[in-house]
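ARCHIVE CARD
CATEGORY: sequence design from structure
SOURCE FIELD: tokenized fold
FIELD CONTENT:
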């Protein structure tokens, strides 16, 4: 016979973002319609962190309004609606160790899996739920009332589990749960005497999984992080530095909104990742031990499910992804993508907070506001069609053409104001000067920039529409002309002229002297002999 202690270890959420370990929480006694479950293993996931951040604002933390009377609810010690501290943790496997006299469907020794949502117990916006307005299984023992887990129609929310499968095989379906010294054997068949559940609140298997993947890819964490930083540098993410592969806060790990937008753009080029990021949920088919299970994306922008939106409604139909993130230091963060009318946008919101009055998370509301403004005030317009003539430039040294038509090889698209027609965009050109043949078709010869109200919106390269051959004769003539038009050529010519003038002058002078000398000799020969 199991000896039931009077106190136990438990995790309790006591307020918004307030969680604590209680090493001496009382083990409640069972009433006539109640049973006591000794927990073997328990799952925990993002749903529990949502409860942690929302607490009494969470729809499943509110009071039960139908299914049980207030007097009946008051008989259940584990009923903790509103601002009452509660114990998170759902879908546990456990053993029934005590039952009340009026319990009809369960017996001591039964091994069961607890289904979290008790849909016959209604709240104003949701339903009764194990781990929310009823205490969950992140404790060693939990009291469950039979009226909560057996509906008036006979549906049971405690599913029988045989002794063969391990508690981990049944209960730890969600990968954020783990255990510490809790099992006597590797197969995790039963609780080790003195063993306790390790409750995961903010750390967990997301870290472990990231480390395992890092080691599988690169051999060790440091090598994988080095590759992360190399890839970030290759993408031009100059404001980003990684120190771990799981993204937990670190003083030397940082990024910027612009860099995350660059990364998001790269991610969205991968069709597999696009599909994953746009997936609202995955269904895990039922087995002989469980019903169908649905695991939803933690990005509330893409969740259209009516039931899920009762819990947290930020659905935005054009949204296609991407990822959310939260830490106490970083706040609420979101990298989101949306597509509407052929225009796909990326939005990055960092360091957002939660509105204390309404409970709204501003990273979602801000993203929707930004997307709404963009789709209402901007248009993605084609400013140039591919290969359409744009302008002409003068071409030299060709005997077949004097001008070349320039085109935009890929065309030009841009985000421009919704009330401006593409034809109204002003154009300015940066064109090469003194363009000479030969010119190859497609050779870049300039750029055009489109602007409106002195604001530039797009710029694209301009290339030659066709080829232009060079004329050898024109080339030779041009080079000769260029030579004589150059500074040094002018200096040489001037020097040559000066030398020629000097030469001519000296020649004339010398010739004159010779004539004078000859005349004197002739004149001297006719006089008396001496």
């Amino acid at each position: 016979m199991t000896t039931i202690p009077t106190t136990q270890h438990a995790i309790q959420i006591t307020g918004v973002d307030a969680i604590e370990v209680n090493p001496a929480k009382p083990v409640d006694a069972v009433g006539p319609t109640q049973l006591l479950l000794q927990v073997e293993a328990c799952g925990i996931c993002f749903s529990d962190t949502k409860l942690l951040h929302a607490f009494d604002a969470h729809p499943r933390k509110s009071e039960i309004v139908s299914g049980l009377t207030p007097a009946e609810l008051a008989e259940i010690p584990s009923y903790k609606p509103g601002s009452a501290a509660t114990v998170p943790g759902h879908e546990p496997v456990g053993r029934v160790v005590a039952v009340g006299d009026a319990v009809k469907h369960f017996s001591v020794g039964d091994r069961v899996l607890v289904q979290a949502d008790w849909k016959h117990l209604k709240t104003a916006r949701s339903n009764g739920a194990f781990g929310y307005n009823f205490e969950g299984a992140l404790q060693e023992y939990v009291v469950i009332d039979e009226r909560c887990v057996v509906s008036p129609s006979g549906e049971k929310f405690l599913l029988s589990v045989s002794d063969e499968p391990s508690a981990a095989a049944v209960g730890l379906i969600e990968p954020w749960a783990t255990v510490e010294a809790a099992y006597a054997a590797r197969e995790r068949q039963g609780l080790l005497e003195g063993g306790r559940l390790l409750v995961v609140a903010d750390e967990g298997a997301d870290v472990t999984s990231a480390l395992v993947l890092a080691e599988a890819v690169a051999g060790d964490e440091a090598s994988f992080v080095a590759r992360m930083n190399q890839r970030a540098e290759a993408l031009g993410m100059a404001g980003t530095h990684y120190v771990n592969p799981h993204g937990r806060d670190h003083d030397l790990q940082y990024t910027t909104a612009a860099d995350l937008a660059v990364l998001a753009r790269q991610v969205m080029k991968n069709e597999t990742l696009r599909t994953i990021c746009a997936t609202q949920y995955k269904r895990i088919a039922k087995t002989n031990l469980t019903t169908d299970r649905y695991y939803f994306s933690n990005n509330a922008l893409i969740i259209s499910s009516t039931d899920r939106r009762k819990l947290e409604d930020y659905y935005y139909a054009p949204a296609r992804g991407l990822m959310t993130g939260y830490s106490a230091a970083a706040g609420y963060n979101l990298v989101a993508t949306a597509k509407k009318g052929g225009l796909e946008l990326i939005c990055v919101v960092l360091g957002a907070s939660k509105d204390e009055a309404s409970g709204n998370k501003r990273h979602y509301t801000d993203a929707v506001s930004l997307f709404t403004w963009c789709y209402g005030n901007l248009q993605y317009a084609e400013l140039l069609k591919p290969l359409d003539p744009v302008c002409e430039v003068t071409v030299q040294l060709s005997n077949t053409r004097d001008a070349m038509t320039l085109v935009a090889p890929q065309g030009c698209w841009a985000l421009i104001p919704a009330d401006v027609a593409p034809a109204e965009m002003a154009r300015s050109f940066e064109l090469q000067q003194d363009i000479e043949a030969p010119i190859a078709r497609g050779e870049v010869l300039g750029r055009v920039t489109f602007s409106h109200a002195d604001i530039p919106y797009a710029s694209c390269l301009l290339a030659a529409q066709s080829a232009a051959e060079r004329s050898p004769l024109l080339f030779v003539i041009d080079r000769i002309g260029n030579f004589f038009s150059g500074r040094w050529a002018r200096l040489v010519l001037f020097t040559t002229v000066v030398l020629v003038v000097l030469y001519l002058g000296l020649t004339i002078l010398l010739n004159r002297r010779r004539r004078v000398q000859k005349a004197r000799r002739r004149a001297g020969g006719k006089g008396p002999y001496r």
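CARD ANNOTATION: Residues 473-511 form one domain. The two ends are 171 Å apart (CA to CA).
SHELF: design records, drawer C
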